[in-house]
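Dear colleagues,

As part of the handover before I leave the project, I'm documenting each prediction I ran so the next person doesn't have to rerun anything. This entry is a single chain, and its sequence is reproduced below.
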Amino acid sequence: MPDTTPSADWVIAVDGPVAAGKTTTSLALASALGLNYLESGKPYRIIAFEALHRNLHIDELHAIESLCEDLLAASDDASVLASDRYAPQALRLRPITALVPLVARIPGVRQHVTRLIHRWAALHPRCIIEGRDIGTTVFPAARVKFYLTATPGVRAERRVRQEPGLAYQAILHDIMRRDYADMTRAVAPLTPADDATEIDTSDLTIEQVVHRMTTMCRKRGIEQPAAGTEAPRQLATPPSTQDT
C-alpha cells in the first residue's frame, strides 16, 4: 500500500522480531523526545479479540475483513485503539496471542490495519510506531527507521525473565516459529528496510540502545518539543507483558 500520509516525515519506524527490545526502547525514546507512541500489533490483537468473541473462524476471510471494515467505520478518528473495551490483559490472553499471526497473514486485514495506523498517525504527528513492517510497508517514507534484532537465545531469555513461569525451550521454539511465520508471509514479510539503522541488541543495555536511537533521531532533526505542547499519547499494553 503506498504511503500517502502527509505525516510520514515525522514518523519514526521501529521494526524487528519478537523480544528484540522494540517496545522497551520505543517507550524510552518516546519519553526522551516527547513522541506519541503506538504499538502496531495492537490492532491485530483487537481484530483477533473480536473474531474470537464473534465466533469467526480464521478461514472465513470475508467475515474477518467485514469485521475490519466495521471497526474502521466505527472509528473514523482511530479511537478504537484507545477503547476501554480492549483491556491490556484481555488482548494478551493465550488464545488471542495464538490467533494474531494467523490474522496478520490475511492481506485484507493488513490493508485495513495500515489505514487505521495512518489515521492515528495523522492525528498524532511526531510519533514512533513499532511493528514488523512499519518502515517497509506502512511508512516507507518515515524520517527515521530502526530495525532491532537479537539472537533467538537472548530473546528467549528475555521472555523467560518477563514471565518466569514459562520454560526456556518452549519459549525458544515459539520465538523461532514466530520468526519463520513473520519472515515468510506473502504480504509485508519481516525484513529490514534498505535505509533502516540496524541494531543488534543482544549484548547492549537498554540505555545503550536508546542512546544510539536518540543520537540518530537528533541527526535527522527530531528533538524534544518546546514546553507547553500537548502531552504525547502512548498506546501499548503494559511493558511487562509486551511482545517486544
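Strands lie at 11-15, 36-39, 127-131, 144-149, 197-200, 234-235. The domain at 6-241 is CATH 3.40.50.300 (Rossmann fold).

All the best with the project,
I.
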